[in-house]
Design a protein that fits this description.
By secondary structure, the chain is an all-beta fold. It has a single domain, classed as 3-layer Sandwich (Rieske Iron-sulfur Protein), CATH 2.102.10. The chain contains no helices and ten strands. The strands form three sheets. A four-stranded antiparallel sheet has the order 2-3-4-8, with no helix packed on it. A three-stranded antiparallel sheet has the order 1-10-9, with no helix packed on it. Strands 5-6-7 form a three-stranded antiparallel sheet, with no helix packed on it. A hairpin with a 3-residue loop joins strand 9 and strand 10. The chain is globular, with a radius of gyration of 12 Å. The structure holds FE2/S2 (inorganic) cluster. The site of FE2/S2 (inorganic) cluster has 12 residues, from loops.
């Protein structure tokens, strides 16, 4: 596991998902009003992009068929068949770093 600088904190506005690609893997980064979380971007149902979904608190809704993922835990509701991976995001106050 490597810690990657994924850019300035201001690139990750509140209540919005941003997709970053690390080592060929698409990871969705979320800012829940100051707390940063990251999950696999690809919905385990049929591949919707969680970073394009709508956020409600710590939940993001898949834009394709409405599965909800908790960005803190990776747990998903149907029709997603299971959870997604989670990644630690840390900030030094200037940039964000992701362990992937
Ligand atoms: S692809 Fe996400 S709910 Fe279907």
């Amino acid at each position: 596991m490597a810690r990657e600088n994924i850019g300035p904190v201001e690139n990750f506005p509140p209540n919005k998902g941003i997709c970053v690609e690390i080592g060929g893997k698409r990871i969705a980064v979320f800012n829940t009003t100051g707390q940063f979380y990251a999950i696999d971007d690809t919905c385990p149902h049929v591949g919707g992009s969680f970073s394009d979904g709508t956020m409600h608190g710590s939940t993001v809704t898949c834009p394709l068929h409405g599965a909800e993922a908790d960005v803190r835990t990776g747990m998903c509701t149907p029709p997603a068949p299971g959870p997604v991976g989670t990644y630690e995001v840390v900030s030094d106050g200037v940039s964000l770093f992701l362990d992937a």
